[in-house]
Amino acid sequence: MDKLKMQTVNKADENFKKLAEMFPNAITETIDENGEVVRAIDKDVLMQEISCKVVDGNEERYQFTWPDKKKSVLLANATINKTLRPCREESVDFDNTENLYIEGDNLEVLKLLQETYLGKIKMIYIDPPYNTGGDFVYDDDFVQNTAEYLANSGQYDDVGNKLVTNTESNGRFHTDWLNMMYPRLKIAKDLLTDDGVIFAHIDDNEVENLGKLCNDVFGEDNFINIITVKTKIGGVSGSSEGKSLKDVTEFIWVYAKNKNELLLKPVYNHIPLFDRIQSYLDEGKSWKYTSIITKLEGKVLLKRDEKHDMNFYGYTTLKTQSISSYAKENGISEQDVYNRYADKIFRTTNAQSSVRQTVIKETKGFEYPMFSCEYVPIKGKNEGKKIEILYKSGSTDDQRNMVMFLSDVVKKIDGVYYYLDKVSSLWDDIDYNNLTKG
C-alpha cells in the first residue's frame, strides 16, 4: 500500500515553477532575511511582461540589463498591423510546394508567424549580424517615428527594410545590438515546440552577450551546449597582425524551449573503418580494438540481486587472440577479420562507473577469467532493455575491466563497416572547399 503524504502541496513553489516556465527572464537571486542567497521573482521584470508601458524599479539584484531593455520587452509584445503577401510570379509550384521562403523585417515576420506556427516549430537556426563594427543591424528605434528615421538613415536591405551601420564609435554599440536581438529571441522561443531547440551562430564579438540573452529568454536550465566551429582560415589582416592570435573559430549557442521535454539522439560521422584505423596510426594514436574472443563458455550464475534485478555471472573458459595472429592462422586478411567478427573484436577499459563498482563488489573472491552483469538500464540508449556487460579479470582480485566490442561503435552499410564517431561540441572537420556539394 502506498503511504499517504501528510503534507499539502506548497502552492508557492508550484506557482514559482509556473512563473519560471512562462517568464524565465524574471527569475533572479536575492538575499533573504537570514542573509542567504535565494531564488526569487523579479517583480519589475514580471510587471514589465504583463504591462503595456515601461515599469521602473531600482532594487539591487542579480540581473543582465542594458539601456532600453524594458522597451525591448514592450517591442516583443507589441502588435503590428501587417500581413504576408504571396509572390506567385517569383515562386516555384506555388500551390503544391511544402516550403516557405519569406522576405521582410524579421521581427515583423516572426510576429506574423505566431498566427499559424505558435508552438509548432521544431528547430530554429539564426545567423544574426556579428556586430563586428561594420555590420548593418535593424534599428528598432524607440524614439523616432518611421518618417524621421527614414529621413535620417537612408539605409535599407534588399527588400526595403530600415537598417543602420553599427560602428564601434557608436556610444550604444552593444546596446543597439542587444535591443535588436532581444525581442526576436523572445518571439522565436514562443514559436518553438515544447521539445524544440534553437541554434544561434555568432563570433567572439558578442558571444558572451548572446549567451546572456539566451539565459534571459530561455532560462539557464535550458542551456544545452555551446558549439565551437573551426572556420575557414583566411589571410591575416595587416592591421591586426601581431596584436592578437589568429581567429579561426565561431560559436553556436544551443538552447531548448524546455529541456525536460527534449530528447537529443546521438549524431555520428560515418567513417570507413579502415580509414579510421589508418588515421589513428598516421596520428601516432593507439588503435585499441586489436583482440578477438575465440572462445567464451561455461556461464555460471554467481549472485542474484532481487532488489535491483541484476544477475552476476562467471565464465569458466575464455580464449582470446590478436587480430594479426588470428588472420595468419586462418589464412585471411586482417580486414576480413574485422569485417566478419566485429561482434567478437574487443578492447577493455577500467573507466569508473557505478555498475563496474557493483561488479567488483559482488564478484570479489570468485576466480573466473570473465565476469558479467545482466540488468535493465534506466537511462541511455539501452533504456528498458536487458543487457549483459562483460568484465575481464586482471592480475588482482578486484580488477574488473569492462569489455567493449567493436560492433558497438561500427555500422555495416552495404557490406562495409563504418566507424561511428559521435559528434561533439567541437566542429573542426567542415570542408569549406566543398560546401556546394554538401
Low-confidence blocks of residues: 142-146, 148-154
From N to C, what is the helix and strand string?
Answer: HEEHHHEEHEHEHEEEHEEHHEHEEEEEE
Query: What is the quaternary state of this protein?
Result: single chain
Count of beta strands: 18
Helix content: 25-40%
Largest sheet, in brief, is: 6 strands, antiparallel, barrel
Structural class: alpha+beta
Question: What is the overall pLDDT average?
Answer: 83
* Gross geometry: globular
Number of helices: 11
How far from one another are the termini?
Answer: 59 Å
How large, in whole angstroms, is the Cα Rg? 29 Å
How much beta, percentage-wise?
Answer: 25-35%
Strand order of the largest sheet: 10-11-13-14-15-12
Please write out the topology.
Elements: H1 11-22, E1 27-31, E2 37-41, H2 43-49, H3 69-77, H4 106-117, E3 121-126, E4 136-138, H5 146-153, E5 163-165, H6 173-191, E6 192-202, H7 207-218, E7 223-230, E8 249-256, E9 268-272, H8 273-282, E10 291-305, E11 310-322, H9 323-330, H10 334-340, E12 345-349, H11 354-363, E13 370-375, E14 387-393, E15 400-405, E16 410-413, E17 416-422, E18 426-427
Parallel strand pairs: 3-6, 7-18
Antiparallel strand pairs: 1-2, 4-5, 6-8, 7-8, 9-17, 10-11, 10-12, 11-13, 12-15, 13-14, 14-15, 16-17
